[in-house]
Amino acid sequence: MPHKTDIKSLNYNELVQYVESINEKKFRAAQLYSWMHEKLAESYDEMTNISDKLKNTLKEDTLYTSLKIVKMQESRIDGTRKYLFELYDGNLIESVFMKYHHGNSVCISSQVGCKMGCRFCASTLNGCVRNLLPSEMLDQIYRISRDTNERVSNVVIMGSGEPMDNYDNVIKFIELLNSERGLNISQRNITVSTCGIVPKIKELADLKLQITLAISLHAPNDELRKTMMPIANKYSIAEIMDACRYYLDKTGRRISFEYSLVKGVNDTKECANELIELVKGLNCHINLIPVNPIKERDYEQSEKNSIKNFRDMLERKGINATVRREMGRDIDGACGQLRQNHIDENSAI
Ligand SMILES: C[S@@+](CC[C@H](N)C(=O)[O-])C[C@H]1O[C@@H](n2cnc3c(N)ncnc32)[C@H](O)[C@@H]1O
Ligand code: SF4
């Protein structure tokens, strides 16, 4: 955590207090807030109505986060863009920009790396380096918005990191993203995905936000889930399902489940039947994701036929299930892989 004031992570009221604490007039807060969160300025130098004297004070006193683009890959198939960004301290993160018919979506990272150790995930290969600040989560959207010149209408917190392991910063980020003085992205257009940290899911439910909760389930029973996700040793599926029902009760929002299909591991008929039993009667949607193989692990993607059969079995029982369209198939695949490949390439030199 930087010692300077992380100015872009302050909400409007906190910014007013900060501005007054350095003996400036309150209207400066409105100007600064607009430069940071509406005009998406990348530094104080862009702020034409702020005096040089105040800019110098702010440069001394605050951390003004902004991201450097290290690499950008664009899909020729669907326009998906993968960004590798450098943070102020040299750490690297990645974000993805996707174009859908309902609008543009950005998938952001919430941590540098992740400590959760899921078997199929490239984000966790080197553990968790640090939490991202609220400003650094905003910056991913701001930078992409400026780079593409496109409005972003949906945000998914599904990049590297476990958002419930960086809970306070994620909640602050959602508040800022949702603010009328900023990008004003509706809560309904924000999705937070978690591997299932039960107490935090309940804490989130109590806030009664209108965001979508996505649970990375990936297995219909604890035994199998433990072989894929170490967090399953801490929280059982029964506890996760209880937390989901609590979330639904408090917010009225349908739950999403993520289920990455791995050949011969979790794509069998037995698994489909167990999954049907598990979610029966719950207002939910299941996203089936053909697993994206990473070279460090031996998981393989399920056959097209098994994926279709799995989905059909769920649908026949009236369970909403879609196979996630693979965006940007022609660019560096799995989440966390662009960063991992870059780290590998540079440490090999
Ligand atoms: C990278 S995680 C980040 C959010 C949170 N930590 C979680 O696990 O939900 C987002 C989603 O990507 C999935 N994922 C990770 N690696 C994958 C891979 N190689 N192929 C397919 N999905 C993957 C995860 O299972 C999870 O559902
Ligand atoms: S899937 Fe999510 S929780 Fe698991 S290691 Fe990857 S980022 Fe972390």
UniProtKB/TrEMBL annotation:
Q: Which UniProt keywords apply?
A: 4Fe-4S, Cytoplasm, Disulfide bond, Iron, Iron-sulfur, Metal-binding, Methyltransferase, rRNA processing, S-adenosyl-L-methionine, Transferase, tRNA processing
NCBIfam families, per this entry? rRNA_mod_RlmN (TIGR00048)
More about this protein: Reaction proceeds by a ping-pong mechanism involving intermediate methylation of a conserved cysteine residue.
Gene that encodes it:
rlmN
Principal location: cytoplasm
Q: What EC numbers are recorded for this enzyme?
A: 2.1.1.192
- What is the protein named? Probable dual-specificity RNA methyltransferase RlmN
SMART domains linked to this entry: Elp3
Family annotation (CDD domains) = Radical_SAM (cd01335)
The cofactor note reads: Binds 1 [4Fe-4S] cluster. The cluster is coordinated with 3 cysteines and an exchangeable S-adenosyl-L-methionine.
- Species of origin reads [Lactobacillus] rogosae
Q: Where does [4Fe-4S] cluster bind?
A: C114, C118, C121
Q: Which GO terms describe its molecular function?
A: methyltransferase activity
Summarize the protein's role: Specifically methylates position 2 of adenine 2503 in 23S rRNA and position 2 of adenine 37 in tRNAs.
Q: Name one GO biological process term.
A: methylation
Question: Which cofactor(s) does the record list?
Answer: [4Fe-4S] cluster
